[in-house]
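Researcher: Here's a chain I'd like modeled. Treat it as a single chain, no partners, no ligands.
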Amino acid sequence: ESGFCQRVKLTSYPLVKIGDILWAYMGAGEAPPLPQWEFALVPSDQTFTSKRLQECNWLQAMEGGIDSSHVSWLHRGNLESDPLFKGARGNRYNLSDARPVFEVVEQPGGLFIGARRNAEGDQYYWRITPWVMPCFTMVPPRGDHPVHGHFWIPIDDENCWAWSFDYHPIRSLTPAERQSMVEGKGIHVRYVPGTYRPLANKDNDYLMDRAAQKAGTTYSGIDGIAMQDASLQESMGPIVDRAKEILVSTDNGIIMARHRLIKAARALAEKGTVPPGVDPAHHRVRSAAIVLPPDQAFKDAAKDDLTARAGIAQTSV
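Model: Modeled as a single isolated chain. Structure tokens:
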């Protein structure tokens, strides 16, 4: 016996249940206002939430979530096969125009990241992704399918939780939709039994199917949209060396997100300024998919579609 007594201090945090999630404030001082994300406020039969372990730094996972250009390549096999994606008119624009033009607009809580592709009649198909600081992303909708998105929550420098949600703002999820989510379709995954680790993971090469890849069924040979994304984000290494990056115009959303994060971190450290994204007003956003004439800026023409309005459907292509 050492003769020494080790004192352990336990800290507890109040939990508040909103939607499917228990929320906690783990900082010092007075807690911020409660979150008002639309997916957590709709009736329970309209929403579904899951979480999974992701074995990389949260920022590189989040940056993958705000890039729309990879959809035309990485997910092309899923657009017409995944039950939570297929049948939407906009899918053909993703498949026919693999070189989107990006336009990024600042909004109070973060960014609206617009990816523009060519549509018929000299019009443009816009997919507009909101990013709310520091780690909320929302995927543009497809037809009448549920809308989905993620929070990327740090565990430590080399791991994070990916919280993924699906919801519909004006109707219940169908039994088939909910079952697809439970089975790991769309942005959800199957798990190693008894854990939140994806069944397809870096230790089994993400269950890569080279025959399916060769046949063109999947671009990567990896099944499922969530794991297609995670496999690339994790295989960069747990913390990517950004000094080796070659950024291009389609990375404008990522570049501006980094600038906003650095600016907010400095303002908090130097002046105690509350970062954007804490204010519940910043939570009332939606993603949008819309076809517009070339003379209409998405920030004006899609303004209503980018605002969460209880019980009102958004335009979705």
